[in-house]
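Thread: Newbie trying to understand structure tokens

Hi all, I'm a second-year student working on a class project, and my supervisor (Dr. K.) asked me to get a predicted structure for one chain before our next meeting. I've only ever worked with sequences, so writing a 3D structure as a token string is new to me. If someone could post the tokens and maybe explain what I'm looking at, I'd be very grateful. Here's the chain:
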Amino acid sequence: MVKPVIGIGDAAVLMMNHVSEATSDKVQLLRIPKRLRRALPRVAIENGKKSVQLLPYDEKAAKAQKIVTAGESIDDIYIGHINTSTHLIIASERSLWAISRHNRKPWCFSWEELSHFSVLDNRNMKITIFSQAGFKPFLFKVDNAKSLSALYDLLSMQVAKMVSDT
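---
Reply by user tm_fold:
Sure, no problem. This is what the structure looks like when written as tokens:
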């Protein structure tokens, strides 16, 4: 007998709060979640099969995923990212992103627009894009050989989608 009476009281209070918010001139601030959605783990190919390893929460990966999915409004899948000295490079299922650290200007190309990539030396990766104007190379400097290897692995996952193999 008490529960229905409390439920009616709660409903009345909730309705009065909504009416008060709707009729007030006060600007309502949206509540921003303290933690971004968990980024999907990087997919690895082992013995010809895709496998997924569950990883602990990584705020940088969650931010990279938010860039790729545009806050979940775009149906794309985050694969992984690499921080270089000049760019943040993000790979998704559909495209490759590079965001400049100097001016925060991003560029994005679909994997089908990438012609090939190659390691120039132990600190530089060259990615060539095929466009209507012809081939356009981009040079990315990395901090160390481990980062270069990680970037190579990230690009190698999508080599089947590229215009030509590396």
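A couple of things are worth pointing out once you decode it. The CA atoms of residues 47 and 107 lie 33 Å apart. The chain has one domain: 2-161. Feel free to ask follow-ups in this thread.
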